[in-house]
């Protein structure tokens, strides 16, 4: 499968202005995630202004990449489990419940990084994921992430995304 055949989760998130994954944020990171078997994958190339120390990627940027990759994964998994296309209704949106990142070694800011996430458990609106972060084939970080479904268009009233 080449890059033109991939179905990127973020292309199916209407009105998404998120810094990490929003296609409608001109200043954002514009990550792109897709399925590869049972794992979601994201490849991303940093820029110099995202460094922490010279030539090393900033840890906050790494956490943002993990966070946004996993929220897209939670959403795409829900559609997949229901046997639906990403453009189908109802529309779901997820927000971060918890994000526990373990930084294993410094990550180069000069090379493409790869994120791989897999679903560990789904309980109601909560999706638990494991995400591994790689640079040049070496795992440099890992995270456990909980995504919470905060929007279901079939239950939305007045367009409020964050209903209590």
Automatic annotation (TrEMBL):
InterPro entries: HotDog_dom_sf, THEM4/THEM5_acyl-CoA_thioest, Thioestr_dom. Transmembrane segments: none annotated. Keywords: Apoptosis, Cell membrane, Cell projection, Cytoplasm, Fatty acid metabolism, Hydrolase, Lipid metabolism, Membrane, Transit peptide. It is a peripheral membrane protein. One of its GO terms (biological process) is fatty acid metabolic process. Signal peptide: none annotated. Residues 57-140 form the Thioesterase domain. Its EC number is 3.1.2.2. GO terms for cellular component: cytoplasm; membrane. Belongs to the THEM4/THEM5 thioesterase family. This is Acyl-coenzyme A thioesterase THEM4. It comes from Reichenbachiella faecimaris.
């Amino acid at each position: 499968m080449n890059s033109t055949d991939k179905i990127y989760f973020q292309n199916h998130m209407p009105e998404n202005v998120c810094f990490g994954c929003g296609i409608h944020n001109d200043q954002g990171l514009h990550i792109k995630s897709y399925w590869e078997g049972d794992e979601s994958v994201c490849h991303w190339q940093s820029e110099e202004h995202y460094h922490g120390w010279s030539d090393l990627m900033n840890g906050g940027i790494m956490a943002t990449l993990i966070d946004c990759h996993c929220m897209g994964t939670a959403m795409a998994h829900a559609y997949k489990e229901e046997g639906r296309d990403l453009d189908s209704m109802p529309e779901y949106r997820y927000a971060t419940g918890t994000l526990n990142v373990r930084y294993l070694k410094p990550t180069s800011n000069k090379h493409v990084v790869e994120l791989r996430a897999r679903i560990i458990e789904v309980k109601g609106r909560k999706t638990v994921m494991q995400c591994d972060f790689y640079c040049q084939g070496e795992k440099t970080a890992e995270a456990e992430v909980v995504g919470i479904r905060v929007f279901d268009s079939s239950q939305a009233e007045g367009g409020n995304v964050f209903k209590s």
